[in-house]
Write a structure and sequence with these properties.
Strand order of the largest sheet: 2-1-3
Number of helices: 10
Strand content: 5-15%
Low-confidence stretches: none
Number of strands: 3
Helix content: 40-55%
Structural class: mainly alpha
Shape: elongated
Mean pLDDT: 82
CATH class of the largest domain: Mainly Alpha
CATH topology of the largest domain: Cytochrome Bc1 Complex, Chain D, domain 2
Distance between the termini: 104 Å
CATH architecture of the largest domain: Orthogonal Bundle
CATH superfamily of the largest domain: Cytochrome c-like domain
C-alpha cells in the first residue's frame, strides 16, 4: 500500500478526546439516585393493615358440593360456551343456538333430559336441522348445577322462560336412571315437547 493511501485513512477511533459528556453522566446519576431514594422512602408507608386481607381459605374457594347457590353463568362458561358460544348463538350448521330454541323453552323436563342424557343424531332447532353429538352431564353436574345452568340459559340469549328447580332435575334423573345412551334427536325427544 502506498503512503498516499495510508495518509487518506482515518486513524482508529479512541475516546480520549471525546469522552461521555458530563451532562449525560450527571442526568443518569441523578435518575439512579432518585430511583433508589424513592424506593427507600416509600417502603415505610406500606402498613400491613392496608394490605390484602384475604386468607388461604378465601383463596381456595368453596369445595365442590358446599353450601351456596350454583352459579349458572360460571357453569355455562365452563361447560357450554365452547359449542354454543358466549352469545348463545351456536355455530351455524354445526352447533344449534340456545336463543329462541324450542328445546330450551319447552316444558321443564325437556331441557333437563337433554342435559342429563345428551343428544345424538338429527335435531331441528328453529327449522334448521343439526346433526351432531351433545354430551351427557348426569355424571359431571349435580342437580343444583344443572338447574342453575338451565335457569341461566332460559333467562338469557333473548329467552324469558321460567326457572328450573333442582327438584325437577332430581325427579328426571331418577326417572331416567337406567338410560345409558343419549337421546336420538327429534325422533326420541318429540314426545317431551307436549
Amino acid at each position: 500500500m502506498s503512503n498516499d493511501a495510508r495518509a487518506r485513512e482515518h486513524p482508529d477511533p479512541y475516546e480520549r478526546n471525546r469522552p461521555v459528556p458530563r451532562l449525560v453522566l450527571l442526568v443518569v446519576t441523578a435518575i439512579v439516585v432518585w430511583a433508589v431514594g424513592y424506593i427507600v422512602l416509600t417502603q415505610g408507608d406500606d402498613a400491613p393493615e392496608l394490605g390484602d386481607r384475604r386468607t388461604m381459605s378465601t383463596l381456595e374457594g368453596r369445595p365442590a358440593g358446599a353450601g351456596g347457590a350454583a352459579d349458572g353463568l360460571q357453569i355455562y362458561t365452563a361447560n357450554c360456551v365452547a359449542c354454543h358460544q358466549a352469545s348463545g348463538a351456536g355455530l351455524p350448521g354445526v352447533f344449534p343456538p340456545l336463543g329462541g330454541s324450542e328445546w330450551v323453552l319447552g316444558a321443564d323436563k325437556l331441557p333437563v333430559n337433554i342435559l342429563l342424557h345428551g343428544v345424538g343424531g338429527k335435531l331441528t332447532v328453529r327449522e334448521v336441522a343439526y346433526s351432531g353429538q351433545m354430551p351427557a352431564f348426569k355424571e359431571k353436574l349435580n342437580d343444583a348445577e344443572i338447574a342453575a345452568v338451565l335457569t341461566y340459559i332460559r333467562a338469557n340469549f333473548g329467552n324469558s322462560a321460567g326457572k328450573i328447580g333442582a327438584e325437577v332435575v332430581k325427579a328426571e334423573r331418577e326417572a331416567g336412571k337406567d338410560r345409558k345412551d343419549p337421546w336420538n334427536g327429534d325422533e326420541e325427544l318429540a314426545p317431551f315437547k307436549q
